[in-house]
């Protein structure tokens, strides 16, 4: 948000970067299921573009965050050689796949219209939205789809989708399309800042001299805070056995 407000790398393109109702939570989408909230946050795009702004066909870019467990191996994908990528990358990619290939649909209680899980993604596609999952690993690493959007890194090959998930595949292809979905926004923000402000410090400090530095600091802080909260919450699911008689020889039993 601060990158947008100060350096405006996509000037007059972003009309808002928000959580629903200005609060933490999930973002509504104009679907047949009005109570469905498929995004954690989104950017609404203003198409009254000025010179130098990206020419983007979407009305909104939505983001959905998923945290990846460290003890669950990624499924093997015959579409690529697993040796080409490390296990962490594949786990993050599997988290991204799960966001595209959601498992739940729903029914509108007023209209009685029912959508399958893939039809929900289809309505996001048809609403002229781009959908970018943000997969975050146990050590703060980020999935390749968001990294492409963030810093221009090459994404991994897309995972396989079943034949009954054509909209999931369509959304995944759209998320990494170089022709229509923004990429390397931090690099463009830095270039814009240097062009307009020269050597001025972005945040007034050498510790965050550029928009990209400040944005990465904030992302790191958010990841650390959320992971710490997750770990702290997990302690509520631990039970202590005073006799220390557990099947693995330890004194604690981990709950569900």
Description:
- The chain has 256 residues and is α+β, with helices and mostly antiparallel strands.
- It is 33% helix and 14% strand.
- The strands form three sheets. Strands 1-2-3-6 form a four-stranded mixed sheet.
- It is globular and about 55 Å long.
Strand content bin: 5-15%
Secondary structure tally, helices: 7
User: SSE string, helix = H, strand = E?
Assistant: HEEEHEEHEHHHHEE
**Helical percent range?**
25-40%
The strand count comes to 8
Low-confidence stretches: 1-25, 247-256
- What's the average pLDDT? 77
The main sheet comes to: 4 strands, mixed
Category by helix and strand content: alpha+beta
Radius of gyration: 21 Å
Q: Order the strands across the largest sheet as they lie in space.
A: 1-2-3-6
Q: Report how far the terminal alpha carbons are from each other.
A: 37 Å
Overall morphology: globular
